[in-house]
């Protein structure tokens, strides 16, 4: 797929991986629809200054009413989504024995149900137009699990199953769906890990380093451009899941 003038909606795109995905797609000439719970005029201006159309649609994907308003706003502006990146997500880490039900519900509600809420109406439009790309941000935790992240692992494993099924449902009408499963990526969250623990984690990674948000974003770019890839979960993890 040639990305020039394609409309790309990225949930949770005001910072981190989502923001980097927005930048890399804009560099290819795509129009960017940013999303988040709080507007980032700085990010919006940055994308516009790259010479493409950029919009911001404020919505909390944990709230079905918010998502409905976002979809209606896109319709009102006559913006058809060519590429959807379900990137928004949260963590509420605790061991199972100490986890509250709300901790589990909150993570599932945003990471998995949130993707469902956003994807369903956009997928319908893509089927009608017989074209479209959906990219879901999963995690290696959804593949091999992780102590203290049973809610997060369940949500990301669910997203991988969601991806495979959506790929099958969309294939006959040329709508592709893939997932990215990042491993340990340099971020505000991972920078808080104490140095001793960082070294232990690096020793478990064959490439012996954490990844970058740029490396994750470039994988999203690849998945959008390769027209013969669907139903796949690409691990960007330095070899952790080999």
Characterization of the model:
- The protein has eight helices and seven strands.
- By secondary structure, it is of the alpha/beta class.
- The protein has a single domain (7-236), classed as Rossmann fold.
- Helix 1 crosses helix 8 (213-225) and helix 4 packs parallel to helix 6 (150-171).
- The longest helix is centred in the middle third of the chain and has 29 residues, at 101-129.
- It is globular, with a radius of gyration of 17 Å.
- The chain starts with 6 loop residues before the first strand and ends in a 6-residue tail after the last strand.
Strand fraction band? Answer: 15-25%
Characterize the main sheet: 7 strands, parallel
**Contiguous runs where pLDDT drops below 50 for at least 5 residues:** none
Q: How many distinct domains?
A: 1
Can you tell me the CATH topology?
Rossmann fold
- The CATH class name reads Alpha Beta
Share of helical residues: 40-55%
**What is the correct CATH architecture?**
3-Layer(aba) Sandwich
Question: Structural class, from helix and strand content?
Answer: alpha/beta
Number of helices: 8
How many runs of DSSP E, i.e. beta strands? Answer: 7
Quaternary organization:
single chain
* Mean pLDDT across all amino acids: 95
**Cross-sheet strand order for the largest sheet:** 3-2-1-4-5-6-7
Rg over alpha carbons: 17 Å
């Amino acid at each position: 797929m040639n990305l020039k003038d394609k409309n790309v909606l990225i949930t949770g795109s005001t910072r981190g991986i989502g923001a980097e995905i927005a930048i890399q797609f804009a560099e290819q000439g795509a129009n960017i629809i940013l999303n988040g719970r709080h507007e980032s005029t700085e990010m919006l201006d940055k994308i516009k200054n790259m010479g493409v159309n950029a919009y911001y649609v404020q919505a909390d994907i944990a709230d079905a009413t918010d998502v409905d308003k976002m979809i209606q706003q896109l319709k009102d502006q006559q913006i058809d989504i060519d590429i959807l990146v379900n990137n928004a997500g949260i963590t509420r880490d605790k061991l199972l024995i100490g986890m509250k039900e709300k901790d589990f519900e909150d993570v599932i509600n945003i990471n998995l149900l949130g993707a469902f809420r956003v994807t369903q109406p956009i997928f319908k439009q893509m089927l009608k137009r017989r074209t479209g790309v959906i990219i879901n941000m999963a995690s290696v935790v959804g593949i091999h699990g992780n102590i203290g992240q049973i809610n997060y692992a369940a949500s990301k494993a669910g997203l991988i199953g969601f991806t495979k099924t959506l790929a099958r449902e969309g294939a006959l009408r040329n709508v592709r769906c893939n997932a990215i499963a990042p491993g340990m990526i340099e971020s505000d969250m991972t920078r808080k890990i104490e140095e001793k623990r960082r070294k232990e984690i690096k020793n478990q990674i064959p490439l012996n380093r954490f990844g970058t948000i740029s490396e994750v974003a470039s994988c999203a770019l690849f998945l959008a451009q390769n027209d013969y890839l669907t139903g796949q979960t690409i691990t960007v993890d330095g070899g952790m899941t080999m």
